[in-house]
Each structure stands twice: as C-alpha cells, then as structure tokens.
Amino acid sequence: MWILVKKSDLTMEIDKIEKLHIIGYELKDAKITLNQDVKFNIAGIKIEGAQGEVLNLPRWIGKTIADNHLGTLDSPDMITELKQALSKEKMVGDYQLSTLDQHFYIKLKQSMKELRNNDFDHVESIMLELFRMRRGKLVKLADSIKLNSDLYKKLTVEEVVFFKSIYDNSQEFEKQIRGGMSE
Fold it and tell me: Domains in the chain, ordered, with CATH?
C-alpha cells in the first residue's frame, strides 16, 4: 500500500532554518569598494564615501550598490572554497568530517546563481560529490553518536538539521524494533 505524503518535515525544517540564516548572512558586514563618490540613505542607514574607498556595510546594501554599478562587493571565491572542501573531505577519511562554514551551502548557492550554464553544471557536480560524501558520513555518525559541540562546529546549518533528524529517527526505530523487550 502506497501512502502519499506532503513535503517532508525535514525539508520544511531545513527550508525554515536556511531562510533564517540567509537573512542573517545578508545582514553581516561585507567589504565594498566604491566605484564613484556616493552619498545616500538606505533604510535609515546613511552611506557616504569617495571613489576607491572601502566600506564595511551589511551585505544586502553592498549587493544593492554593486547591482547598480556604484561599487564592487568583495565576495569569497566559493568555487575555490568548494574544491578545497571536497579535497579536505576526501583526506579526512570515512568516519571523520572536515569543517565547513555554517553558511557554506548558502554562500555557494548565492554564487552559483551568477554562473553560466556550463560553469553551473560543472560546479553543481562538484557540490553534489561533496554533498553525497558528507551525507554518507553524517548518516553513519548520526546512527552511532549524539551531536556534540565538536561535531556541531564542523556542520553547516542544513547538516545540523539533517543530523538531528537521522539521529532521532534512528533512536525511534531502535525503540520500535526492541518493543517492550527491555521492560
């Protein structure tokens, strides 16, 4: 018998967490180099600077300035970071995880939006290789240990939700199999 299920709780949980963290990431300061003299007020924030000046502004404001060709937003090279992350993940072994920034996938997806089709496909294949490798490790770890602070520091926001879901489901499954045997 097939049971139709709406979007999974895990997917909804990751969506909510990711949206919250995207907002937080956009509010963090980023460096912007001005292409020309500017003086304006955005959402109550007064911005004034001369051509060539580097300002620390919330990322969303920096993006707005860059989108209007008034400055250049200093963004991390996520393609290089992705390749380095994959290389590190391969080196640490099957039962260890390398450390990723908690917003790694958020930043990667933001930078992938700006890629051309061929470049996008190539970067996506690298991202999926990293994702699948880490997912396999997370499943193994979540089945054997509880999330601790050392492991938490190595995970992205999406991976924390995934880990907790696997751990909780594994514990519940074990209870179901054991039934009343331990009573």
Answer: 9-73 (3.40.5), 78-173 (1.20.58)
